[in-house]
Amino acid sequence: MKIYSYRFLNILTVASLLWLSLPVAAQQATEQSDPAPREQVYYTIVDIPIPDGIELEVGGLAVIPDGSLGVATRRGEIWLIENPYMTGTRTPRFDRFATGLHEPLGLAYHDGSLYASQRSELTKLTDKNGDRQADAYETVVSWPLSGNYHEYSYGPLFTPEGDMLVNLNLGWIGHGASLAKWRGWMMKVSPEGNMVPLASGMRSPAGMGYNAAGDVFYAENQGDWVGSGRITHVETGDFVGNPEGLVWSHLEGSPVKLKPEDIPDTGDPMSKVAAEIPGFKTPAVWLPHGLMGISTSDILLDQTGGNFGPFTDQLFVGDQGHSKIVRVYLEKVNGVYQGVAFPFREGFSSGILRMVWGNDASMFVGMTSRGWSSTGKEPFGLQRLVWTGRVPFEIKTVKAQPDGFELEFTLPVDADAAGSTDSYQLSSFNYKYHHNYGSPVIELEELALKAALVSEDRLKVRLVVDGLKEGYIHEINASGIKSGEKMDLLHDVGYYTLNQIPSGEKVNLSEIRKAAANPHAAHQNTAVAASNTADPTGAASNTSKRITEMPDTWTNGPDQSIVMGTLPGLKYDVELIEVKAGSKVKVTFNNNDDMLHNLVFAMPGTAIEVGEAALEMGLEGSQKNYIPESDKVLFHTNILSPETSETIYFEAPAKPGEYAYVCTFPGHAYVMQGVMRVIK
């Protein structure tokens, strides 16, 4: 058997281990020196060292009953890792269980075998002689491929009956397309290999998981017909949004009867369109793009019984592009799922694709960035997320009320802060439902908060809100809240998707005149008209930093014309351009990628600063093409959809130097950069 040498544990791992070894008093003293609680105080990231020579680009994770961790990789291998918890002095042992697979993007253990979804089939792999290597590779079922690179296959997720669920990604030809049978569908596979369609409308359904009630949810990525990432409850016969897969709905056995032409392309909010179409299932929870991540991946139910903190029965949702995990609380109102999303843990080493519970209630997190890129700089990684035992001060749940929301906290709140309407800001917004890639935020509206009522035990606050809208996302900002011990919230902003307003008794405001007398209660709602929002097709008007028509004064045309495009992996196809100081420059930017991008020229050394300023724009970012108000920004295009282009004109800076150009779409700025060298 090959002996692998290990890389050194990285600095994050060493720091995490040292942190866990500190006495609680020392941890508290360290935390108090920082004005805001830090995530690592509560949830520590620990690296699992990967031997040299193993490219562990994780596509799937599964825990084996003997405690080993199964890892499928995008390079077609499956590894068994013994002692992934690094107990005692033993380092993890890696055994290659299987090889020769075609980009498996899912792994599950069931009844003595591992099951993996390859590009074109669901495969059962069994070790029959106990040597930690698969002796049998059995095709459970196969499905056709067109050969398009974007035809990823995900799963399986086992049902209680022993069947398996798989999701089939659309291809990409400048837009999502179902180029082979059942692409864009969730399928059910029996142990005997009978495959039947369950639901359609998927675009890039990278993750599936159960909630505490045993219902199935899937995760979707922003793209065409998908304004932002989201998770959706899926039942047999559902259509969940992207009409490309409906080209197969006429086939025998399809429980979905809609046809592509039944889906209007109006740009109205998805909830409005779905209300007129039977069988159209809207998301349970939207994950606002750039704020809750940019590429939704896996779904993991907290079934640890409190051994991972105070979030039992909630969902953790991974994000590949932002290398982070968000937390989702679900509730069912009038038979419809809805709920709230909060940030949970950032700082993972690569793009999160898979998560699974270890036997000790820690979370294994498998990562890859190949071809997609991520804020985590490593090309791949495997880490463990460990609860330190300390309870963070968080908004634990948000529940819809007939006239607002009820917030529940993990620790008692300071009654004065929690009872002041000044401690909160609320707004509602939506996304366009259209064939274009993504959407700006539309119909952004500030909501008036009439009262904040604190419960006797100080664990709940009832917010009385004007202007709730069904089918809209509601931002709840509680930045003014303190705990009884004067701690700030670890995460003070959440996003509640309000599909249904519950019936029931409303708060009698006449009994709380004192709270309602707060001057903020008299504020009127302020609507931001959708017609004023920027569109990712680049239709916004010119500014001095974005000139899309050649100036009349350029009688001899530009001194220099430059054409730039994109490459996979968040790259410009030109990383260095040279222009003369003060010269007239024409730049044509072609976005030939399958993601949204822009081109922003900035002052020397400010690419990351400008990118982070764009990220901090919050809900206004998409409306303003993620161009921050900054003197560091010199010239820019708008956000461009895939397969579109824009030309801008500018005069090069008079001062020679190496100026930056960068994509400021959320998360891209860390890697998508270049240099404009200005010479005399």
Q: How would you portray this structure in words?
A:
It is built from 7 helices and 45 strands. It has 3 domains: 11-387, 6 Propeller (Neuraminidase); 395-532, Immunoglobulin-like (Sandwich); 560-679, Cupredoxins -  blue copper proteins (Immunoglobulin-like, Sandwich), CATH 2.60.40.420. It has a 9-stranded antiparallel β-sheet with strand order 20-21-22-23-34-33-29-30-35, with no helix packed on it. Strands 39-45-44-41-42 form a 5-stranded mixed β-sheet, with helices on one face. Strands 1-26-25-24 form a 4-stranded antiparallel β-sheet. The chain has 680 residues and is mainly beta. Helix content is 7%, strand content 36%. It is globular and about 80 Å long. The chain starts with 10 loop residues before the first helix and ends with a strand.
- Counted up, domains total 3
| Rg from alpha-carbon coordinates | 26 Å
Low-confidence stretches: 1-37, 519-541
Shape: globular
CATH fold descriptor of the largest domain:
Neuraminidase
Highest CATH level, the class of the largest domain: Mainly Beta
Main β sheet profile: 9 strands, antiparallel
CATH superfamily membership of the largest domain: TolB, C-terminal domain
Q: What is the residue-mean pLDDT, rounded to a whole number?
A: 90
For the record, the CATH architecture of the largest domain stands as: 6 Propeller
